[in-house]
Design goal:
Blueprint: E1 2-3, E2 9-13, H1 19-29, E3 35-39, H2 45-56, E4 60-64, E5 67-71, E6 79-82, H3 87-100, E7 104-107, H4 110-113, H5 118-126, E8 130-134, E9 137-143, E10 151-153, H6 159-169, E11 176-179, H7 187-194, E12 199-202, E13 205-208, E14 218-219, H8 224-237, E15 238-246, H9 253-261, E16 264-273, E17 276-284, E18 292-293, H10 305-313, E19 318-321, H11 334-344, E20 348-352, E21 355-359, E22 369-370, H12 375-386, E23 392-395, H13 407-411
Parallel strand pairs: 2-15, 3-14, 6-7, 10-11, 18-19, 22-23
Antiparallel strand pairs: 1-23, 3-5, 4-5, 7-9, 8-9, 11-13, 12-13, 15-17, 16-17, 19-21, 20-21
Helix pairs in contact: 1-2, 1-7, 3-6, 5-6, 8-12, 10-11, 10-12, 11-12
The structure holds shikimate-3-phosphate.
Length: 413
């Protein structure tokens, strides 16, 4: 895929639905009583993996345009589930299957099969779950076993780990108290509360009792992780407006980064839709300052770090990003792949075990790079090429289908 340089980039963009919210709307309604309609859903490959897995487990899931109709199974049936590239599908299904007492075997593609699964399996076993991983990785087998609520401290601030524990706790006897080191995204807590679950969240602690769920319709906000690419293009090249973007405070670390970098932006039409805060986000071209980002902010912008690194590469001064070692276990090793992408197009970046040092330049030269089968590297690099002097080619750019199938149509529109 060729990306040409754009000295000016202006426009209003309809960003696809939030990936995290779409996964949850499919998975949770798949075990709820009744029927739900999920509108403005993301139909990227990852969410389609969740839909296919819930179908295999016995739920009815019908996709029609950007709407998904889900009818929960009264009782899930044992199944083999192919989670594709989707970590969220595999990890949440581990907890869901344990909580529902159903046998599943979970497999994934080459990238997903390299990602750590014991971070979910080990705390689930503390509740009594019978889970087997292949040396810490997929394939993962979950067998029915009685679960008992207890207090569990998670080692990493991960919404996937937290959500798996919450889903298991729905089927455990007694109360489960989950504490995480830093607050990760809380879409699970919000949606399950709306579905009638016995769940309370306070700071980094979630308390869950055994619960049955009732189906809820979900209007999915636009994904701030997808909007981030067009917000960055506004900051670098012109002015962009993204409508109805989810601005849940556990996801808006990028706005705090904009504050520190001097990016001019404004939120408009702020409202709450299906329990999630939503707003229109307008971003204008701005002179950028370097930033220093540490561990505390990481959970709120973890998926945006590659595109934030692109902004740092175009900012005045030296930016330091640390405490971001979670990037090493995403769809690719994103510390390595982000650094390689930036270096290939003329950026000055130094890789650290837990982040980057990036020395900003007035402009990036442009050049060719490989997306390394990682959608966020492809899209972050596309932003960098659009803002560069010469543009360039991205090898393997089709992986954007994972979370943003029409990304290049919007970029070239
Ligand atoms: C997600 C949580 C994040 C994020 C991923 C989606 C979710 O992972 O990187 O893209 O939907 O729960 P971790 O919670 O493991 O950091």
């Amino acid at each position: 895929m060729n990306v040409r340089p754009r000295t000016q980039f202006f426009g209003e963009f309809r960003i696809p639905g939030d990936k995290s919210v779409t996964h949850r709307a499919i998975l949770f309604n798949g075990i709820a009583r009744g029927e739900a309609v999920v509108t403005d859903a993301l139909l990227g490959a990852d969410c389609l993996s969740s839909a296919a897995c819930m179908r295999a487990l016995g739920a009815q899931v019908e996709v029609d345009g950007t709407s998904i109709r889900v009818r929960g199974a009264e009782r899930l049936r044992a199944a083999d589930c192919d989670c594709g590239n989707s970590g969220t599908t595999m990890r949440l299904l581990m907890g869901l299957a344990a909580g529902q007492g159903v046998q599943v075997r979970l497999t994934g593609d080459a990238s997903l099969s390299r990602r750590p699964m014991e971070r979910v399996a080990a705390p689930l076993r503390l509740l009594g779950a019978d889970i087997e991983t292949a040396d810490g990785h997929a394939p993962v087998t979950v067998r029915p076993a009685p679960l008992f609520g207890r207090a569990v401290d998670t080692k990493v601030a991960s919404a996937q780990v937290k959500s798996a524990l919450i889903l298991a706790a729905l089927g455990a006897e007694g109360e489960t108290v989950i504490r995480e080191p830093l607050l990760s995204r809380d879409h699970t807590e919000r949606m399950l509360a709306a579905m009638g679950a016995d769940i309370r969240a306070e700071g980094c602690t979630v308390t869950v009792g055994r619960s049955a769920l009732r189906a809820v319709d979900v209007a999915v906000p636009a994904d701030i992780s997808g909007a981030a690419y067009f917000m960055a293009l506004g900051a670098l090249c012109g002015e962009t407006l993204c409508r109805s973007v989810g601005v849940n405070p556990t996801r808006t670390g990028i706005l705090r980064v904009f504050d520190q970098m001097g990016v001019r932006y404004a939120l408009g039409h702020e409202r709450t839709v299906c329990g999630e805060p939503v707003a229109d986000i307008r971003v204008r071209k701005s002179p950028l300052r370097a930033v220093h980002l540490g561990r505390a902010i990481m959970p709120s912008l973890i998926d945006e770090l590659p595109v934030i690194a692109v902004l740092c590469a175009c900012a005045e001064g030296e930016s330091v990003i640390e405490g971001a070692e979670e990037l090493r276990v995403k769809e690719s090793d994103r510390i390595r792949t982000t650094a390689a992408m930036l270096a290939a197009i003329g950026g000055d970046v130094e890789e650290k075990p837990d982040g980057f040092i990036i020395r900003g330049k007035k402009s990036l030269r442009g050049g060719n790079f490989d997306a390394c089968a990682d959608h966020r590297i492809a899209m972050s690099g596309a932003v960098a090429l659009a803002a560069s002097e010469r543009g360039g080619d991205i090898a393997g750019a089709e992986c954007v289908d994972i979370s943003f199938p029409n990304f290049f149509d919007l970029l070239n529109s």
